[in-house]
Amino acid sequence: MQYLRKSTAVTIMFGPFVDKADGVTLKTDATTITDIDHASTGIFLSKAGAAAAIRHANVTASVADAYGMMKVTLDTTDTNTTGTLDVLFAKAATYLPVNKEFMVLEQVVYDVLFGTVALATATNITAGTITTVTNLTNAPTAGDLTATMKTSVTTAASSSTPTVTLANGAHGGAAATMQLGGAGGLTATHTGNTTGSVGSVTGAVGSVTGAVGSVTAGVTLAASQHVIVDSGTVTAITNTVNADVKKINGTTITGDGSATPFNV
Predict the structure, then answer these.
(1) Average pLDDT of the segment spanning 157-168
(2) Which residues pair with 252 in a beta bridge?
(3) Any residues with CB less than 8 A from the CB of 12 and at least 6 apart, and which?
């Protein structure tokens, strides 16, 4: 199998053409050229396994060569499909059938394999175009970045200062701004008031001893209420005492004080 370059005109050697009577006598006369170049019955092509069809019109005239071979020209339309290309000819009354198979390659692949493009320079291939890459001499070594790349990264990192804005009331005071950025690193700044009213306590609260933690809300007391503080929690209660007394000075009390009088 021979290789052809996609969408590129090429002259191929096609044959041998031999007489159908004995399968030996070579046929390279002008009649043979007329037969294979005929516009409707001449050489057929099958592209990438598709149904065979007559070679492209307005063909270049074929030329007889030695040993029954013909120099046949395929134009850019004949070679416009990547894959197998079967070149076929048959005229049962005169010749034994002739066929030859080719492989059509993408242009850049063909150029690397058979052309003037070295594989080492074909590192940037876009839409069939080869661009030689020359800017790889300062590639990073030992996991480090080059000075140019370091400068680029540093400039990009310090060029912007993202901000986070806290809504008013989210922290009890005026709006505040947190800034992350700065040349070569991260900084954080805070502006605004972060304090606010936590409520008020009114009424008689008595005295509080011991650790009370933090008061997180305001408690308003009525005249008949007082405050109990337990592990930082402030609770208002009414001045009501519920007592279940069983003994006084060691003497057991009987009765319920209602239907049955107390007996002390």
Answers:
(1) 54
(2) 247
(3) 2, 4, 71, 72, 73, 74, 87, 100, 102
pLDDT at 207 over 70: no
Per residue, the 3-state secondary structure of 10-64, as one string, reads EEEEECCCEECCCCCCECCCHHHHHHHCCCCCCCEEEECCCCCEECCCCCCCCEE
Asked if residue 89 is part of any domain, the answer here is: yes
Q: pLDDT of 66-108, one tens digit each?
A: 999 999 999 999 999 999 999 999 999 999 999 999 999 999 9
Q: Which two tokens stand for residue 236?
A: 């208002």
Q: Is the pLDDT of residue 14 over 60?
A: yes
* pTM over cut 0.70: no
Give the range of the structural domain holding residue 262, as residue numbers without chain letter. Answer: 197-264
Nearest-10 Cα torsion for 118, 119, 123, 124 = 60
Q: Give which of 152, 149, 195, 192 is closest to 172, Cα–Cα.
A: 195
pLDDT of residue 261: 80
Measured CA to CA, the distance from residue 151 to residue 158 in angstroms comes to 11
- Which of 109, 133, 157 marks a domain boundary? 109
The Cα 131–Cα 111 span in angstroms is 13
* CB 219 within 8 Å of CB 201: yes
Does the residue 116 lie in any domain? no
Q: Is position 202 within any domain?
A: yes
